[in-house]
Amino acid sequence: MSKRKPYVRPMDGWWQKNPYFIEYMIHEGTALFVAAYGFVLLCGLWHLSQGEAAWNGFIAALQSPLALLFHLILLAMIGYHSYTWFKIMPRTLPPVIVGGKRVSAAAITAGGFAATLLASLALLGIVWGISQ
């Protein structure tokens, strides 16, 4: 009596065979944390539309230790998601040519980080100015 080999699907674990794909799948998984924070913001907007008491309750809930831990986890995952996005940005852009020379991948990544830092500082300055 012959033994049959179990059927193995040819695409099982395809992403586990290459470190680039592993990092890519982790990057895509962290997008769920970005969506979760979007949901938190939508909940805040909904509570704001329900009046002052609902808004104050939402703010109080955000100050609980569990909510703070949740936001710390979200911050870490969104930070990693952003970092990996900037890291793969040179691979997703068409070649950038400046002065007849191709811009290096490191310069594109650094430019993305610098633009984000400047935009964040500008936004912080605007918010700081409004609150004073």
TrEMBL record:
Q: Which InterPro entries match?
A: Fumarate_red_C, SQR/QFR_C/D
Spell out where the chain crosses the membrane.
Answer: 21-48, 68-86, 107-130
Record GO cellular component, one term: membrane
UniProt keyword list? Cell membrane, Membrane, Transmembrane, Transmembrane helix
- Keyword presence, Transmembrane: yes
- The highest taxon in the source lineage is Bacteria
Protein's UniProt name:
Fumarate reductase subunit C
**Which organism does this record belong to?**
Chromobacterium sinusclupearum
